[in-house]
Please model this.
Amino acid sequence: MDTRLSEGRWLRIPGPTPLHPQVVKALGHEMVPHRGELIMGMMERIQVTARKVHGTESGEVLLWAGTGTAGFEASIVNLCNPGDKVVVTCCGDFGDRYAATAEKLGLDVKRVNVPWGTAVSPEELDAAIGEHGDVVAVMITHNETSTGVTQDVAALAKVAKSHGALVCVDAVSSAAALPINMDENDLDWVLSGAQKAWMCPPGLMISALSERAIARSKETTGYPRFIWDAPTMVDASRSRVHPTTPPETHLFAFDAALQAMEEEGIDQLFARHKRLGEFFRAGLKDIGIELVADEAVRSNSVTAFKAPNGSAGAFRDKVREQWGIELAVGQAQWADSVMRVGTMGWTYEPELQATLEAIEAAAK
Ligand SMILES: Cc1ncc(COP(=O)(O)O)c(C=O)c1O
Model:
């Protein structure tokens, strides 16, 4: 076994990301009674810090066993009825997936498609909602992991709200890396997965719901729901008594990650990600690598760039074999031509510097 690859710090793909050392320790926690005091106290603590990370005072943060994609389905079956009109911003592979989920569930979906590497503008969203008419919800990818683009969630949400629509946000690669400002931006359902900037293993889906979303989920009855029933989970969250056996190991890990974030400071956490994103992009620029996202919308948690020497797969393999660093290739139509690097979670300058040096050497 190549021990260099077992070093999480060299995992530079945009999720799963390296686990925080306190998370690694928490993963070894013995099982405890799932309705006992230890779990209840932990749920209480998790709620406090997870709210801060989402930028909400009173939004309810719900935790399901599942991955980010489950959040697409959960948001839809709780906020919509079959046949409802929704608009989805599609600036990459994950926007397409949210739209595909909505279509599969029988919603009347209007996709706002823009070229990869760009973001949907407020004007484009406004026109799409106007054309579609009576839109119940707008789905926005905050940070498009396939292209390294951060969309202006504040401006897009404002447009959606001006049409009276609910706002669902895919924050899978932004939560705990970029400010979401849920209350300030009046967002209704913010979903993410634990394996990215939350510094935890995959398997936990996090959803923060506004009071409006909770009220809507009590009114909508168009989809049969059991596991994804938000009202049940809100009651569970408030009483700290989970309706099923909760994924205890994931909760221990998530709690440890949140405590690490408290120790760092939430503002400092966001400032570090900004610093790291800028550091990595500047480094690529210095070695003459071409970024694929438009300059104004470049993400601080994921950077996507043209594969040096043509083939993305060959470049990834070379960097892995010679430097022990794991890069990601692009997705869908960018699978062969684009590379992606995560600059989120348990990450600092030294490993990004080492990654830049490997990229520079491999590109020669
Ligand atoms: C922006 C975004 N949305 C959704 C997903 C899907 O999440 P999961 O793979 O946890 O289902 C991902 C995964 O990379 C993502 O980056």
